[in-house]
Amino acid sequence: MYSNAIYSQTILINEYLASNVTDYPEMYDFDDYTDWIELYNSDAVPYSLDGFFITDDLENPLKWKIPDGTVINVQGYLIIWADDYNEGPGQVYTRPG
Fold first, then answer.
1. Whether 60 contacts 19, CB under 8 Å
2. Which of 1, 3, 11, 27 has the smallest C-beta neighbourhood within 10 Å, fewest atoms?
3. Would 87 be classed as within a structural domain?
4. Nearest-5° angle of CA 13, CA 17, CA 21?
């Protein structure tokens, strides 16, 4: 069965910064700059990211799971810090050393 429906994407990669060396230093290590990805919800309803993953390795598409309960509000933004740590909103940010 075929469908003529057209589906639009409501979550967009709005901005990203790879190989960051100058913008937004880490709170605790002021000489440590983290890459980041900013997502944008262009829809008129909040969007849940339950069950979504993000990766920088096509051989490992499930590299990092976006925490369940993460929602991007209507025309809202979400920044994901690519710092190899798994703390989410409301969790204590700790790093070795």
1. no
2. 1
3. no
4. 170
So what's the pLDDT on residue 92? Answer: 65
- pTM beyond 0.85: the answer is no
Q: Say how many domains are in the chain.
A: 1
Q: How far is CA 63 from CA 7, 19, 76, in A?
A: 26, 19, 24
> Which domain range does residue 30 map to?
11-82
23 falls within a domain: yes
In a domain, 94, yes or no: no
- pLDDT in the model for residue 58: 92
Long-range contacts of 51-60 (CB under 8 A, 24+ apart): 54/80, 56/82
Torsion of CA 92, 46, 63, 18, to 10 degrees: -80
Contact of 20 with 34, CB cutoff 8 Å? yes
Report DSSP state, residue 89. Answer: T
Q: CATH number for the domain including 19?
A: 2.60.40
